[in-house]
């Protein structure tokens, strides 16, 4: 349907899109200088830009500084670092490239990913004298995980080594070994000096022993993107429209081709429909469309798929995607806090969204040597292999560099993108392992705040028996309710009367008691509740575990009442009994109490009780009020 | 140039029709359609900023491609009341021809704008204020804008979906990651997303696409008496360039050899080094 045209201008070969090249590497290894040099050598600067650089350098009383081209934001100049990726077109012969500059500073990893994810090839800049550094390894790892297929290594500042063959060959072999561990194929390792222009666009007189390509030659050798047309058809449904009485199933073809008359399977439900028409507006009429095209399909019967449903060939099992509720995936982790088992996210996969929970952290990458180690958490900006459990079967194709398949992204309840998940494949269950598929709430944190009128949080009160934790907690609960804040108190004795009535006071049982309390607190907090936990929780390690279970919502409060005061108060007669030897392992008397080192709030005992209540209430209000 | 010729290229020896080989414009178009469809699905209410310039006309055209000839959300013209008369005539003609739901917004007088800005930038900032008022009035969660990375260095830092927080501010230091075609969604009340479907296009791509698709333009872009406008702002802060290009094809030929920046005729870009960033952080396009 729609307004089709049949005219078309012809050229023998279609004009190719520019090839995106990302430039990465450790800070100060010379990325920005390289880009300036490349643009200069390939004569790719607009006159206006050149004038701007000269003017900026002049104002600062400096010689022309090529890296200023990229440091175009005032704040970057102030800091002297590049904060975000920039894209600059340049041309080699008839081929066009776009340079993506990626910053070397570690905390800006997410900006680097933003720039690098679409690149066809990467130039990894390594200081020839310093060799691979922490960020070199991190960037190399990321190149692999985001799926860059071609990597060229530039050994920059080789002039410092006098282009000495023996030394450069040594660095080259180290870098090749490193990248080999990541299964990255290295296109070339070029000894160069970006500042002086050696082996960038022209062959250096200083490295006559070097027979490989210059950087520009290596770039020109990067093959064009692999064709996705011959693979089995995939189109994730982006939306369904109804215009002029016609229903259109809209989406972008991720791979393969689709023709009028094709029979397609729709999503995990597996309904089948035939393509009645491939629709475009104001385009040459063609009954076929291929990978990369954004099109609309008319289906027969006129079904209404959901956004996210994957369309794929019916009647051909070999052409069907993987189907599993447990998925093994690699991960690059972008959140400021570590990732832990049991956390729930939305997995975005093309246009689909699935509720998933981290079922296990299978291995964590050690950035010192890029080996896989066991680990129970993934640090910020870290890399890992994990298993995700979804509440239902997910259709997917494993990640493959250079293709759109299996590009999972994890999104948290605040709608933040917190990780990239190149999917490996269905996860097998180990013998004896029982598959659990936890479901996550579909209510966003923002909606909870809207309906409840406040944010959630877990306020963990620790202190000696008799220090006044429960009293203060209950009083704060009341004060909060007067401000229309829903709070729940989990105190030790109440828990032990029910949920934990099977537990005693051995270190193991205390540990279990705290673990259960933390999980209950977490569930309540995730539903938007304010939770005040009043538990002796004497050991640092146990409280650390509680913090780990609850996550970023955890706030430690120390009810700092000295032993003598507690013993003098002794409201339950426990200290007397403990002194008499009637209670074994009593905290403060016959079992240790480890005071918090840096609690977020300390309630000292030398003040009236009402003041402690007010302080705690005010502290909670400050955190949970929107 | 007939259907027969297309078939001769697209017909394989198996007899099955083969998909077209996508050229660079096809790829840019497909990506922009994908972005517009994401915006329409995820951001409601949504609006498209129609400045009447060449880029925003291309954007309206791409929306019609995405939605089978329709633009299923309002287009917004934030009027400084200082545009060229030709632009107003163009607006009225194509609002009808393209069946657009046009929203008009007006800008406050220049006296109400930050006096610390240089004169031309201060004038340009009126548009920011007018736009902010429109967004607040209609509670837009998404605003589609036709900026491109190659126009200006600060715009090169942009995301395709760019969150604007309280007071419509752009937090350039703290932009969300954006990769694998996964875009930011609004996470707080009062914020909106600027959607940039043309971010990856270059000036020459825009012109080649205009030629290929036959997209109408205000004729100020074409040379009269040796001068034409390369970029259209307010009458008093936009200068024409020397040119004899009087057709789309001639403009393309001129650009292929030109080495000056597109915004060279925009006075505000040259007043001080950081002025453009200051404008953009506050919400300018």
Automatic annotation (TrEMBL), chain A:
<keyword id="KW-0511">Multifunctional enzyme</keyword>
<dbReference type="GO" id="GO:0005525">
    <property type="term" value="F:GTP binding"/>
</dbReference>
<dbReference type="GO" id="GO:0004781">
    <property type="term" value="F:sulfate adenylyltransferase (ATP) activity"/>
</dbReference>
<dbReference type="Pfam" id="PF00009">
    <property type="entry name" value="GTP_EFTU"/>
</dbReference>
<dbReference type="GO" id="GO:0000103">
    <property type="term" value="P:sulfate assimilation"/>
</dbReference>
<feature type="domain" description="Tr-type G">
    <location>
        <begin position="16"/>
        <end position="227"/>
    </location>
</feature>
<protein>
    <recommendedName>
        <fullName>Adenylyl-sulfate kinase</fullName>
        <ecNumber>2.7.1.25</ecNumber>
    </recommendedName>
</protein>
<dbReference type="InterPro" id="IPR050100">
    <property type="entry name" value="TRAFAC_GTPase_members"/>
</dbReference>
<comment type="pathway">
    <text>Sulfur metabolism; hydrogen sulfide biosynthesis; sulfite from sulfate: step 2/3.</text>
</comment>
<dbReference type="InterPro" id="IPR027417">
    <property type="entry name" value="P-loop_NTPase"/>
</dbReference>
<feature type="binding site">
    <location>
        <begin position="463"/>
        <end position="470"/>
    </location>
    <ligand>
        <name>ATP</name>
    </ligand>
</feature>
<keyword id="KW-0597">Phosphoprotein</keyword>
<feature type="active site" description="Phosphoserine intermediate">
    <location>
        <position position="537"/>
    </location>
</feature>
<dbReference type="InterPro" id="IPR041757">
    <property type="entry name" value="CysN_GTP-bd"/>
</dbReference>
<comment type="function">
    <text>Proposed to provide activated sulfate for transfer to Nod factor. ATP sulfurylase may be the GTPase, regulating ATP sulfurylase activity.</text>
</comment>
<dbReference type="Pfam" id="PF01583">
    <property type="entry name" value="APS_kinase"/>
</dbReference>
<dbReference type="InterPro" id="IPR000795">
    <property type="entry name" value="T_Tr_GTP-bd_dom"/>
</dbReference>
<comment type="similarity">
    <text>In the N-terminal section; belongs to the TRAFAC class translation factor GTPase superfamily. Classic translation factor GTPase family. CysN/NodQ subfamily.</text>
</comment>
<comment type="function">
    <text>APS kinase catalyzes the synthesis of activated sulfate.</text>
</comment>
<keyword id="KW-0067">ATP-binding</keyword>
<dbReference type="InterPro" id="IPR005225">
    <property type="entry name" value="Small_GTP-bd"/>
</dbReference>
<comment type="similarity">
    <text>Belongs to the APS kinase family.</text>
</comment>
UniProtKB/TrEMBL annotation, chain B:
<keyword id="KW-0067">ATP-binding</keyword>
<dbReference type="GO" id="GO:0004781">
    <property type="term" value="F:sulfate adenylyltransferase (ATP) activity"/>
</dbReference>
<comment type="similarity">
    <text>Belongs to the PAPS reductase family. CysD subfamily.</text>
</comment>
<dbReference type="InterPro" id="IPR050128">
    <property type="entry name" value="Sulfate_adenylyltrnsfr_sub2"/>
</dbReference>
<dbReference type="GO" id="GO:0005524">
    <property type="term" value="F:ATP binding"/>
</dbReference>
<dbReference type="InterPro" id="IPR002500">
    <property type="entry name" value="PAPS_reduct_dom"/>
</dbReference>
<keyword id="KW-0547">Nucleotide-binding</keyword>
<protein>
    <recommendedName>
        <fullName>Sulfate adenylyltransferase subunit 2</fullName>
        <ecNumber>2.7.7.4</ecNumber>
    </recommendedName>
</protein>
<dbReference type="InterPro" id="IPR011784">
    <property type="entry name" value="SO4_adenylTrfase_ssu"/>
</dbReference>
<dbReference type="Pfam" id="PF01507">
    <property type="entry name" value="PAPS_reduct"/>
</dbReference>
<dbReference type="GO" id="GO:0000103">
    <property type="term" value="P:sulfate assimilation"/>
</dbReference>
<feature type="domain" description="Phosphoadenosine phosphosulphate reductase">
    <location>
        <begin position="47"/>
        <end position="239"/>
    </location>
</feature>
<keyword id="KW-0808">Transferase</keyword>
<keyword id="KW-0548">Nucleotidyltransferase</keyword>
<dbReference type="InterPro" id="IPR014729">
    <property type="entry name" value="Rossmann-like_a/b/a_fold"/>
</dbReference>
């Amino acid at each position: 349907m729609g307004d089709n045209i049949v005219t078309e201008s012809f050229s023998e070969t279609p004009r190719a899109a520019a090839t995106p090249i990302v430039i990465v590497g450790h800070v100060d290894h010379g990325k920005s200088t390289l880009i300036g040099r490349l643009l200069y050598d390939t004569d790719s600067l607009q006159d206006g830009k050149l004038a701007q650089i000269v003017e900026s350098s002049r104002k600062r009383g400096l010689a022309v500084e090529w890296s200023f081209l990229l440091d175009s934001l005032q704040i970057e100049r102030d800091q002297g670092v590049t904060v975000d990726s920039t894209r600059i077109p340049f041309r080699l012969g008839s081929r066009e490239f776009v340079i993506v500059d990626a910053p070397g500073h570690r905390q800006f990893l997410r900006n680097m990913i933003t720039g690098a994810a679409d690149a066809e090839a990467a130039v990894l800049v390594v200081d020839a004298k310093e060799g691979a550094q922490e960020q070199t390894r991190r960037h190399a790892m990321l190149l692999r995980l985001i799926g860059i297929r071609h990597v060229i290594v530039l050994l920059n500042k080789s002039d410092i080594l006098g282009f000495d063959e023996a030394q450069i060959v040594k660095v080259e072999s180290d870098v090749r070994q490193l990248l080999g561990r990541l299964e990255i194929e290295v296109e070339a390792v070029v000894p160069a000096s970006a500042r002086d222009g050696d082996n960038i666009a022209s062959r250096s007189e200083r490295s006559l022993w070097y027979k490989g390509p210059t950087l520009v030659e290596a770039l020109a050798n990067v093959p064009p993107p692999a064709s996705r047309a011959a693979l089995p058809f995939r189109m994730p449904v982006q939306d369904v429209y109804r215009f002029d009485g016609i229903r259109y199933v809209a989406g972008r073809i991720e791979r393969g081709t689709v023709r009028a008359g094709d029979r397609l399977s729709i999503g995990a439900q597996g309904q089948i429909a035939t393509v009645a028409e491939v629709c475009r507006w104001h385009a040459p009429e063609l009954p076929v469309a291929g990978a990369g095209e954004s099109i609309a399909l008319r289906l027969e019967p006129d079904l209404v798929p959901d956004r996210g449903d994957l369309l794929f060939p019916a009647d051909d099992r070999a052409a069907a995607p993987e189907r599993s509720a447990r998925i093994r995936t690699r991960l690059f982790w972008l959140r400021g806090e570590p990732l832990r088992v049991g956390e729930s996210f939305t997995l975005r996969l093309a246009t689909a969204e699935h509720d998933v929970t981290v079922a296990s952290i299978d291995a964590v990458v050690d950035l010192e040597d890029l080996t896989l180690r066991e680990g129970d958490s993934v640090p910020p900006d870290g890399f890992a292999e994990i298993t995700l459990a979804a509440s239902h079967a997910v259709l997917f194709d494993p990640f493959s560099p250079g293709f759109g398949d299996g590009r999972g992204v994890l999104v948290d309840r605040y709608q933040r993108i917190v990780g990239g998940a190149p999917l490996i494949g269905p996860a097998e269950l180990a013998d004896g392992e029982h598959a659990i598929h936890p479901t996550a709430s579909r209510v966003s944190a923002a909606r909870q705040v809207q309906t409840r009128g406040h944010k959630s949080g877990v306020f963990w009160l620790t202190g000696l028996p008799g220090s006044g934790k429960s009293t203060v907690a209950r009083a704060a609960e009341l004060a909060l309710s007067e401000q229309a804040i829903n709070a729940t108190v989990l105190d030790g004795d109440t828990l032990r009367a029910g949920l934990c009535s099977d537990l005693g006071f051995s270190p193991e049982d205390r540990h279990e008691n705290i673990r259960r309390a933390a999980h209950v607190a977490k569930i309540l907090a995730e539903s938007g509740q304010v939770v005040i936990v009043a538990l002796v929780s004497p050991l640092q390690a146990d409280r650390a575990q509680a913090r780990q279970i609850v996550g970023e919502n955890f706030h430690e409060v120390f009810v700092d009442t000295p032993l003598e005061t507690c013993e003098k108060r002794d409201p339950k007669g426990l200290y007397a009994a403990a002194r008499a030897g009637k209670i074994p392992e009593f905290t403060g008397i016959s079992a240790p109490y480890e005071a918090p080192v840096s609690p977020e709030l300390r309630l000292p005992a030398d003040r009236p009780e009402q003041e402690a209540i007010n302080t705690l209430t005010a502290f909670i209000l400050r955190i949970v009020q929107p | 140039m007939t259907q027969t010729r297309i078939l001769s290229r697209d017909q394989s020896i198996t007899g099955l029709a083969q998909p077209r080989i996508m050229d660079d414009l096809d790829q840019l178009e497909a990506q922009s359609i994908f972005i517009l469809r994401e915006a329409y699905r995820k951001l409601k209410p949504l609006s498209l900023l129609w400045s009447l310039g060449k880029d925003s006309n291309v954007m309206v055209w791409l929306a019609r491609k995405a939605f089978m000839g329709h633009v299923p959300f309002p287009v917004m013209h934030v009027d400084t009341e200082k545009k060229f008369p030709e632009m107003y005539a163009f607006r009225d003609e194509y609002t009808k021809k393209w069946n657009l739901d046009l929203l008009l917004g007006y800008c406050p007088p220049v006296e109400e704008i930050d006096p610390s800005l240089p004169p031309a930038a201060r004038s340009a900032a009126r548009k920011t204020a007018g736009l902010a008022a429109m967004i607040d009035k209609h509670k837009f969660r998404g605003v589609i804008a036709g900026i491109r990375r190659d126009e200006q260095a600060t715009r090169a830092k942009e995301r395709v979906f760019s969150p604007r927080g309280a007071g419509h501010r752009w937090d350039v230091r703290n932009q969300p990651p954006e990769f694998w075609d996964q875009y930011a969604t609004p996470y707080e009340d009062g914020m909106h997303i600027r959607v940039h479907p043309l971010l990856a296009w270059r000036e020459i791509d825009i012109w080649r696409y205009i030629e290929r698709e036959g997209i109408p333009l205000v004729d100020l872009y074409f040379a009269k008496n040796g001068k034409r406008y390369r970029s259209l702002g307010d009458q008093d802060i936009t200068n024409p360039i020397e040119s004899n290009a009087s057709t789309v094809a001639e403009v393309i030929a001129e650009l292929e050899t030109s080495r000056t920046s597109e915004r060279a005729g925009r006075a505000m870009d040259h007043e001080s080094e950081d002025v453009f960033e200051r404008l953009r952080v506050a919400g300018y396009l």
